[in-house]
Amino acid sequence: MTITVKFFASLREQVGTSELQLPVTQPLTVSQVWTQACGNSSLPAHLLTAVNLEYVSCDTVVKAGDEIAFFPPVTGG
Amino acid sequence: MTITVKFFASLREQVGTSELQLPVTQPLTVSQVWTQACGNSSLPAHLLTAVNLEYVSCDTVVKAGDEIAFFPPVTGG
Amino acid sequence: MKLRSFRRSLGVNMSIEVTTKPFNPWGRLQAHETSLNTHFGKTGAVATFVGTMRDSNEGDLVQTMWLEHYPGMTEKYLEKISQTAFQRWNILDTLIIHRVGEMHPNDTIVLVAAWAGHRGPAFEACRYLIEELKHHAPFWKRETLVEGSRWVETNTPG
Amino acid sequence: MKLRSFRRSLGVNMSIEVTTKPFNPWGRLQAHETSLNTHFGKTGAVATFVGTMRDSNEGDLVQTMWLEHYPGMTEKYLEKISQTAFQRWNILDTLIIHRVGEMHPNDTIVLVAAWAGHRGPAFEACRYLIEELKHHAPFWKRETLVEGSRWVETNTPG
After folding, report:
1. CB contacts, 8 Å: A8 with chain D
2. Are the Cβ atoms of A71 and D70 closer than 8 angstroms?
3. Is A15 helix (H, G, I), strand (E, B) or coil?
4. How far is CA B3 from CA B17, B65, C79, C80, C95, in A?
5. Rounded mean pLDDT of C120-125?
6. For chain C, what is the domain count?
7. Which of C105, C119, C158 sits opposite D41 (nearest CB)?
8. pLDDT of residue B40
9. What is the span of the domain harbouring residue D80?
10. Residues of chain B numbered 8-47 and touching chain C (CB < 8 Å)
């Protein structure tokens, strides 16, 4: 039972990977996913978070099979 | 010594001509031009007026050689 | 009718055309951009508006439309609002093309475009130009319906 | 990348494309209009915005740009804002095309267009779409300068 964690743009470079699988044995918030995935640091306030391709707040609870993404402010268009 | 008086669109049809020459022997306001050109009626409030291709108010004074235009509200674009 | 094209110093470029001929707005935008060599790499944004003849108005089918204008004053007014747009916004180029004479449903009536470094000035200048044109430029529409014809009395509010 | 095109009932037409290939915005608008047979004579207005890569940013020359995105979420977000535009304004059709991958100065980055019966809804929907896209759609720009490269940190305010 895992979740997929994705990182984009400058954050992807900082984390050093674009994607990893995280085992989950209990419900986790997005903030807790960050902490587990990124070595116990707390989620930086400026980062954006999405679960299953939709923006969410950092206290959203995720479950096995979900795709969680972390990324910096967007700059398209 | 004359001025050119032009009419456009529905007003042109009502007046029955697109252009006429009006003799001038003294300074006239745009309103007075209308009255002389159009049989002593007073200038209808909804009409727009231009002198030498620029919008003016009806009390603007015109002189020989000027081109005065009267027309209804515009509907371009 | 001739193309009035103005190339001024200080990067002020405005083009105005009043034409009796049908025109393709996208082809004209393409051609205009091709001519903008001086803005290569400087233009970050272009906002455009294209107005097209609809086949009905106020509940009636419209078969053809006749667009009358005041030659001379029209061009002068469009030049004036283009100059004002350059004074108010940080823009690089403007283009206005307006059809006159007889036209049919789906024909392009008007094209307005504003090029700028950034999107705010491009949008604002484009909107300003079409609103000023609609409210003040001396054009008049006459519609031919299934039975009879009529002058259009007012434009749709912006 | 594939074209996501939606043809719904109730006259709701929205098209979204994310592409790695260079595209000509005016050619695409022309082609899109040709496909709009159902709106023949109904469209009175179209407002468009085209964003183009500039050759400098924050005072530095930019040689190439890399546009990263979040595949899947990007398209979903663009669909969402297109649907919202149809809910808020009386519009007939929308088109969004966004480039990703490597690009060069003067390349088109983004095209947004909204077709409507009248100009107010066309302008407002077009502006809404580009603002929402710029502020929230998951795209990121990385610029290659004469020396080195950097991620763009913020967009120009609208």
Report:
1. 68, 70, 138, 140
2. yes
3. helix
4. 15, 5, 25, 25, 34
5. 98
6. 1
7. C105
8. 78
9. 6-151
10. 8-10
3-class secondary-structure state, position C46 = strand
Select from D1, D61, D66 the least CA-distant residue to A13. Answer: D66
pLDDT at D104: 97
**Closest-approach residue (CA) in chain A for D98:** A77
Instruction: Find the mean pLDDT for residues D111-135.
Output: 98
Q: How many residues does chain B have?
A: 77
Neighbours of chain D (3+ CB pairs under 8 A): A, C
Q: Is residue D1 part of a domain?
A: no
Helix (H, G, I), strand (E, B) or coil at D129: helix
Number of A/D CB contacts below 8 angstroms equals 72
Chain D residue with Cα closest to A9: D140
Q: Which stretches of chain B drop beneath a pLDDT of 50? A: none
C41 contacts in D (CB within 8 Å)?
A: 53-56, 105-106
Asked if residue D126 lies in contact with residue D47, where contact means CB atoms within 8 angstroms, the answer is yes
Closest C-alpha to D50, from C33, C119, C121: C119
CA distance D4 to chain C (A): 23
Q: Strand D13-19 relative to strand C45-52: parallel, antiparallel, unpaired?
A: unpaired
Domains of chain B: 2-70 (3.10.20.30)
Quote the tokens at residue A64.
């096995």
Per-residue pLDDT band for C4 (boundaries 50, 70, 90) equals low
Q: Give the β-pairing of A2-7 and A67-71.
A: parallel
SS3 D155: coil
Note whether residue D102 is domain-resident. yes
Cβ–Cβ gap C41/D120 under 8 Å: no
CA distances from A65 to A2, A22, B58, B73 (A): 6, 10, 76, 65
The closest CB to that of A77, out of D76, D142, D155, belongs to D155
The per-residue pLDDT for range A18-68, each reduced to its tens digit, is 999 999 999 999 999 999 999 878 999 999 999 999 999 999 999 999 999
Structure tokens, D153: 């940190």
